[in-house]
Amino acid sequence: MAKSPVRAAGVPHPYWPRDLSIPGYVANDRSMHEILSFLFSVSGLFLLSTWVLTGRKWARDGRGQEFGVGRRLAICWFAVCAFIHGVIEGWFSLYYDVIPSDQSFLSQLWKEYSKGDSRYVIADNFTVCMETVTAWFWGPLSLWTLFAFLANKPCRFVLQLIVSLGQLYGAVLYFYTEHRDGYSHSQMGHPLYFWFYFVFMNVLWIIIPLVLILDAWRHLQQAQTHTDLAQKEKTN
């Protein structure tokens, strides 16, 4: 069970470590349910809309066939990533220095998430740099990857590989830096704040990118093999 908020530098807050100083901190006036409902509802809307879009008659893969379930889910993933990276993490990259005192909805979302990782509410250098790169590189590139698959652009698997590698690298550093800090920025073992916010919501960016890296590797390898054979036949 979570302990009650403590007072640090004269400002009460619910974050870990318990003596963390957050000058100017203002508690959320939005409930956890409101915040999570928004996040998952909008993410679900992006996922559902993209799923419907990839099932339309004009949506075909490079062989002129309908997208398979796996490919449709991959495209949906990039749509959700474009939203989360571009909007949610983009907000943090722009307003990280005022989030503790700001009552805008997305600032309150970050203050809620910070119960699982307080590095976000103190503008930790690593999180600011990592989220800025994620927002301004992987956000637009996720959107580009989405359209590249819908339009069957030759660069689609290259984009999938680049974005997935970037996501995997960022997630590994995210967990490893907190491991080095002894998991001191969350209540270790808390079912919601530690296991759901910190672990589950971030481990997705390890598991899914790994699958997509292997998928892109396989397709690019096949393409290179085909090119090599064509060149070989041309020279013979």
UniProtKB/TrEMBL annotation:
Entry's transmembrane regions: 35-53, 74-96, 133-150, 157-177, 192-214
Subcellular location field: Membrane
CC terms in the record's Gene Ontology section: endoplasmic reticulum; membrane
Keyword annotations from UniProtKB, A to Z: Isomerase, Lipid biosynthesis, Lipid metabolism, Membrane, Steroid biosynthesis, Steroid metabolism, Sterol biosynthesis, Sterol metabolism, Transmembrane, Transmembrane helix
Membrane topology term: Multi-pass membrane protein
Domain of life of the source: Eukaryota
Gene Ontology MF term list: C-8 sterol isomerase activity; cholestenol delta-isomerase activity; steroid Delta-isomerase activity
Record-stated family: Belongs to the EBP family.
Protein name per the record: 3-beta-hydroxysteroid-Delta(8), Delta(7)-isomerase isoform X1
Species of provenance: Salvelinus namaycush (Lake trout)
Gene from which this protein is expressed: LOC120038670
